[in-house]
Amino acid sequence: MPSLKIILFDDDFRSHLQPLSTTRPVADFRVGIFTIREKWEKWLQAGSSTSTADHLEKFQWKFSPDPSLQNIWINSRVLPSPELVVEILALKQKEAIVKGETVIALNNGNSTDRIRIAAKDHLDENVSVRRTDSPCIIIHRLHDIFSHNGKAILQDIELMRGMHSEKISSTNRVIGTHAVLAGKNVNAECCIFNTTNGPIFIGENAEIMEGSLLRGPLAIGNNVVIKMGTRIYGDTTIGNSCKVGGEISNSVFFGNSNKAHEGFIGNSVIGEWCNLGADTNCSNLKNNYGNISVYNYAISGLEDTGMQFHGLIMGDHSRCGINTMFNTGTVVGVCSNVFGGGFPQKFIPDFSWGGMEGFTDYEPEKSFESIARMRARRKMELTAGEKEMLREVFRSTASLRKKQH
After folding, report:
1. 100-109, 113-122, 148-157, 242-251 — which is least confidently predicted?
2. What's the predicted TM-score (pTM) here?
3. What is the three-class DSSP state of 217?
4. How far apart are CA 117 and CA 120, in angstroms?
């Protein structure tokens, strides 16, 4: 096949993936070791562009197909598998792959036209459709991120087959037959790595402090700090530059977020630049062991997930105070600040300030002050584009706050 340019597109399911899709294309969700974008770029050995929501393209992510290359459109919600990659590489111009009701990929040739793809019946009549039964992970709801995370870690480990692994210190104890793969400059002493159920990946410059107990499948990103005595169960990803402690189970931290103290987070997804105060806990199981309902932005109400275990979903730039208790299946929007005693409501809209006793609007300019201080600790800045994008999120979510506050 000629040289490729990948166009990772968000279809009409992106609204079901808010608040995490509010501030990023779905392609930049982290599932397993890598983001979905990184996976496709590695598998296809090609650069990528993005077709996503207008407010994201306007301020950060640019749509830029290449007329000199074959532009392969790939659904951002789909994770690559070896079988699927073979089918995509075999696509001819104006051929598409569909699985069930989901458009997986389309070869749009040298065309730089934008395609708004919602479902298979929105494909141009000139497109030839192939149906596929190739196995692949498709993200339909946010809980699919943590539900499939263990499998995604294993797939990413296969993608990295042959990578050089640094040795970890002999003061550590490794149990099990799966690998512990460590990048450069990993600092880990007097820890227990249990690989009985899967491998453990540790990124470059990560520090795992003494007394930590870690179980695979587990992915620890670059520059992560695991505090002393941390307990992390399998099917968990701690994204780049996070700092975590306490107890974590089957959860995904996208990156740059902190849960540095005691407390439990399970069956959860935490966005970027979040901070969980000391002894923050989330419930992930109802007292009656029933199905858990979670707020869905797309339907403006609670949706039965059919799941028995579901913890916290937290959007970017949100934080909570010490001893915060989140009920089962709580969703916290972007740029919210939660504090106080008791259990706050199960849905906390974007740009909310408060707790169980009530919420008020958290004005963007005020939130930017906290974000800037958090970024400064890592020698990073909040850009003008990010500020304008967040202001637009504030405007677009006003009705949610009016209804919930």
Report:
1. 113-122
2. 0.96
3. coil
4. 8
